[in-house]
Structure formats: structure tokens, C-alpha cells
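User: Before I run my own analysis I want an independent prediction to cross-check against. Here's the chain; please return only the C-alpha cells and, at the end, one sentence I can use as a sanity check.
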Amino acid sequence: MVKRLFDLSVAGAGLLAAAPVMLLLACWIKLDSRGPVLYRGRRAARGGGSFAMLKFRSMVTGADRVGGPTTAGDDPRVTRSGRFARRLKLDELPQLINVLRGEMSLVGPRPEVVDKVQRYSAEELRVMTLRPGITDWASIWNSDEGGVLAGAADADAAYEAVIRPWKIRLQQRYVDGCSLRTDLRILACTVLRVAGKRVSPPELADCPTFEELRRQVLALPEQTATRLAA
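Assistant: C-alpha cells:
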């Protein structure tokens, strides 16, 4: 109950404060490329089912028909306004509406596409006992996923091989230790990350760095990428 009240108050205040920026960004998106301002992606909901996760559209219309769900930093489907929004995480602001609706929380495991969740193991499904969140430990650890995957022969396969195992581990770590105090720490670290500051909370001490992830992605054999994507 305390977490839900916290989510409602912060999400409501956040929408009011961010309204001018959201309006300007919406205008730029509309002028930059054809298509809707908002992207509605189906994501797995807590306990089963799905919901429409809202984001400012950062890719060309129909991007899902010409590529996979994972986006590398050099993905040509990303628009000019989209690159700017992604760099500052402004594309995530509409998810405050999801929080008000009760579909998401400010802090929780990042929403995943439904078909990937259907392949989760019983242990991995523990992360679905909580509302998905706008940010979590994994978001802070790998705040530049597109940069990590840039140049990958197959971004989806590289994500599955290099990023997903650590992402799930950190989400399970949050499930085991979630509290309002932890949420406040994650939110503070997220703000610092977006501002370009380096943060090193102890919860991420055992995680590979950006440079280490890049080396793993670029060293991934092409035949392995093909096998993982199959």
C-alpha cells in the first residue's frame, strides 16, 4: 500500500512537472517522421496477461516489421528525435501514465515482451510477481544498452547471450530485497545516471562493465548469433 501511494504521488507530480517537455518532444516527433507520437508495446503484466506500455515513438513506423525487438545504438530504424529522446530517457516519460493506471510501478523489473516471458524458467518467473517498473537495478547497470549492442551481427541474439542473464539476475536481486528504501536508492541512482554521473552501488559490484559487455558482444561468433536467434 505504501509503495502504491508513493507511485501515485510521484507519478502525478512527475507528469505535471514534465508536461512542457513532453509537449515539445511530441511536436518534434510528429514533425520528424510520419506516424503516431506514442508507441504502445505489448508487455507481460504482473501475474499473467499483458498491457500496452507507453513510450514516445523513437523509431520509424512499422519498425517491428523490418527488424527484431532489440535496438542497437546504430539501428537505422531510430529517428533523429528518437535518438535524442533515448539518450536522455525522455521516451520513457509516458510510462508515468502506466504507473497511474496501476500497470507499472516507478521501480520494478523492466517490462518484457510476452513471448520472451513465456520462455522463462520457473526461477525467472519470480520477477513477474511484482509490477514491472520504469527503472530497476538492471536499468542503472546497463543504461546504454544500444551502445553495448552497436555493431552486433544480430542484436537480438547478442542481447540474449550477453545482457539477459545479468538482467534477470539483477531483477531477481530486487525481488529478494525490494523495499521503499531500495526504491528511493534506485530512483536516486537513475537520476544520476541520466545526468551522466557514474554511480557504483554495491548491488552492481559484481556486474560486468560497459567495456566488458562490448567486448563480449563483438566477440560473439556469427554462427552462435544465428543459433541463438533460431
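Sanity check: Confidence is low (pLDDT under 50) at residues 223-230.
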